[in-house]
Specification:
By secondary structure, the protein is mostly helical. It has 22 helices and three strands.
């Protein structure tokens, strides 16, 4: 049983218009966020602290949920996938259970107000990333707060894959100003994960634009006319040859040269796959580079959609012979994807230069086409 004093104070606290609750186990304090502001109860255990805190949580759960056993920890995976019921989210924040807070920040029904209360309970980079995946939070007052936290936390983030995710999320429109964006880009010169985050977030608006491909100017009239006729290959070839596309490919080149972590490489391939998805010849990605090169060498024959085959043939025939290899390289990049990495990463956990060496079966076949599209 709780001491009479603690029982009285907790019950008085729980009868208020309660918004959120957190328990400081080290200091034996219960903090509450109410409609009138913040309040706290100092606990005075009459048994071991662990046993006493369990009793405190039973009292809280009985008041909030009507049952004493609290938040069911076995639901962790389910709720972190965003399946917590929207109508129960506000109640979960009153339990003082970290896992219940995690359920709220991952929930599809998260609102800006609930995000604010969850952030009051527990501030963490994982929670910030989860909440910045929700449009209501991005466009609410918490969006910039969470983005600022993630930017500051990047200096302490040890997981490179999470670095990519953090940069990708804070680059969403309206969350950071241009000075912060430029600083992240500059730091990406040494931290490849930052640049890969840019590739995923804003592939057509990267800083420090490169000049267009030398062949863009002479091909511009032809490509513009074909694009006006809704030729998707003309549209994508012009996109790649123009300054934003050249900047994208230059950043891809830089990332390949510097990548040192498998998680970052996976994100890099996802960025390339997404960028060239409109000219992907078929739905299923190859797991071997030589198959991609063989497919692309067959040009329109490797494209399964008949309308796209027609568009490809028309553009191929219209291009000067010396420029037709550009279309082959476009198809090569259209076939690139994360499946290429499975045979490599399944046999090695290499990092650094050893990882770049392990990737040579892929990069060795890809770089000639990168050199063609971005000389």
């Amino acid at each position: 049983m709780l001491t009479p004093e603690d029982s009285l104070r907790l019950n008085v606290l729980l009868k208020q218009d309660l918004h959120a609750l957190r328990i400081d186990e080290g200091k034996m304090l219960v903090h509450a966020l109410t409609a009138r502001g913040e309040a706290r109860v100092v606990l005075n255990p009459n048994c071991s602290e662990e046993a006493y805190l369990r009793k405190v949580r039973e009292v809280i759960s009985s008041q909030v949920l009507g049952v004493p056993h609290g938040y069911p920890a076995y639901l962790k995976r389910w709720t972190r996938m965003g399946h917590a019921r929207t109508e129960s989210l506000a109640g979960l924040l009153k339990l003082g259970e970290p896992e219940a807070v995690a359920a709220v920040v991952h929930a599809s029904g998260l609102t800006d107000e609930l995000a604010s209360r969850a952030w009051w309970i527990l501030q963490s980079s994982d929670h910030a990333r989860a909440m910045l995946r929700r449009e209501t939070v991005i466009h609410g007052r918490m969006g910039r707060v969470l983005a600022e936290f993630l930017v500051e936390f990047l200096a302490y983030e040890a997981d490179h894959s999470r670095m990519v995710e953090s940069v990708y999320l804070v680059l969403q429109p309206g969350l950071i100003d241009d000075a912060v964006r430029q600083d992240l880009w500059a730091k990406g010169q040494r931290r490849t994960a930052y640049r890969v985050g840019f590739l995923k977030a804003e592939p057509d608006q990267l800083p420090d634009p490169k000049p267009p491909h030398p062949r863009l100017a002479p091909l511009q009239p032809l490509l513009s006319q074909a694009e006006a006729d809704r030729n998707l290959f003309a549209r994508e070839l012009r996109r790649v040859l123009d300054a934003p596309g050249q900047t994208f490919l230059d950043t891809v080149r830089h990332s390949f040269a510097k990548c040192a972590e498998q998680g970052v490489v996976v994100h890099l391939f996802e960025a390339v796959e997404s960028y060239f998805e409109p000219v992907r010849p078929h739905a299923h990605g190859h797991r071997r580079m030589e198959l991609i090169l063989a497919d692309a060498a067959r040009l329109h024959q490797c494209i399964r959609d008949r309308e796209q085959q027609r568009q490809f043939r028309e553009l191929l025939e219209a291009l000067p012979p010396e420029d037709r290899p550009l279309l082959e390289s476009l198809l090569v990049f259209g076939c690139i994807g994360e499946p290429l990495l499975a045979p490599i990463f399944g046999n090695t956990d290499a990092v650094g230069s050893a990882l770049r060496s392990a990737l040579e079966p892929v990069t060795g076949g890809l770089f000639p086409h990168l050199d063609r599209l971005q000389p």
